[in-house]
Design brief:
The structure is a single chain. By secondary structure, the protein is of the alpha/beta class. The chain is about 35% helix and about 20% strand. The protein folds into 3 domains: about 120 residues, no CATH class; about 250 residues, Rossmann fold; about 70 residues, no CATH class. Helix 6 crosses helix 7, helix 6 crosses helix 8 and helix 10 runs parallel beside helix 11. The longest helix has 30 residues.
Amino acid sequence: MRPVGLVKAPAEIPHEFRFVTPDKKALKTGEFVYYVHNGEKVICRITKRAPLRLYPDIYLSKPDINPERIIKALGINAGEFELFDVKAGVMGYFDEILGFVNPRIPPVPGQAIYLAENDTIQEVLMKKRAGEVGSIHVGFLLNREEEVPVILDTSLITSEHMCILASTGSGKSYLAGVIAEELLRPYNSAALLVLDPHGEYHTLNEIEGIEEFRIDGYSPNVRIFGKNDIKIRLSELEYDEVTGMLPELTDRMEALLNRAYRELKGMKFTSQDLMDKIIEIAGADDVSVRGLTWRINRYVKNVDIIDDFVHNELKDLLKPGQASVLQLNEMSDIEQQILTSVLLKRILNARINAEKGTTGELLEYPVFLIIEEAHRFASRDSRSYRVLRTILAEGRKFGVGVCLISQRPSKIDSDILSQCMTQIIMRIVNPADHENIKNSVESIGREMIEELPGLTKGQALVAGVAINSPVLIRVRKRLTSHGGLSKNAPQEWVDWMEINTHENEIPKRKKQERLFWDA
């Protein structure tokens, strides 16, 4: 391959260098190049590009005159103005055991720089190849006109967690749909659960009619659970979850409820059992008892997702080759919080029981959870904060993987965000969100963070353990339709006017005719 440039000198930072190139198109910021050291292709990423020599300001004073004409008229060599000074950072060469190995010897001045071939990029940057067991094809390398697939390692995503962070309208839910599709492919066959606060993921059920998902008898299943399909048994709630639902509790009320809860612990009690126990402890005539039982009747029994007897079995929700979408959009905030908290605790305990061989609810296989609007559930004041923090910290040992999706990463607790070891970050412009990402995501360099405001819809920065080095991608097209499209208000207004104008046309004409004859 022919070189694309020659090394000029070291840059300001030890692992960076500058090279000169006449290339005008291929060597964009974020592109990969390499130099050869001891027979190894040492991969480098371009971080900055600028013209080597600028036109003097006076040459640009007449917008209607091309500065090249001035250069030619003065007999100056125009080639000097067609060279570019490019800064690149040394990443190293990839070793299967050691990972990226930096040779610690930068290229010398005059050394040839080459554009990294597609095969080299895939071999060095990707841990998996498309279609392999445990692969997720999320998109294509952004800087290449040729489609260089970007493949993530499923096992590292599901065991060490992932986050998708982006501003509204950047395409984060679309990308999550792509990942869900990949997880249901025959080469993954995941046990997948989606918490869907906006009702956007129901289109995943189209998978059941798509041929690409079927092979050798495998056919994935997608189940959609609406509000009426989701139930939590009262006895599954923790004491603090119940107190959080009951307003204006006095200290005595809390003491009575706490004692009743301790005495009923381990039993599958109903709301009536709970009230009977409170009456048994203090007597029916006690003012606090009357106030507490009234609150239980008013605020616990009227919560639709809480039931005395029925609850969803985990093995109905989670099994290999199945995605269960829990639509939370018709639930109140408190119902969403309670459901998420209880469900996460049950899933974690079921995996712990399976791994340790203890009794209780069991899930004998790893599971993966996609949590939309994660800032609702991962902030410190959320009911699900503690269990989510536990899962992010310890879930990898028990096979509970999580993907957090949020448009407001600054509202997610930094301890939780830092546990997501694979990050996909799309366009973000909020300064607070930028700062939180810088503090919580260690694998992304300063130059890559600066790319975020310039990304457009469907473009993303991928970094972390599921890929060997951060890359910029464009998300691949979904096989199922996207359920989160924004409303086209002008078109709907026009359509409404056309329909209603047509419907009212004849009655209006008849009224006008009556008025004419009456006259």
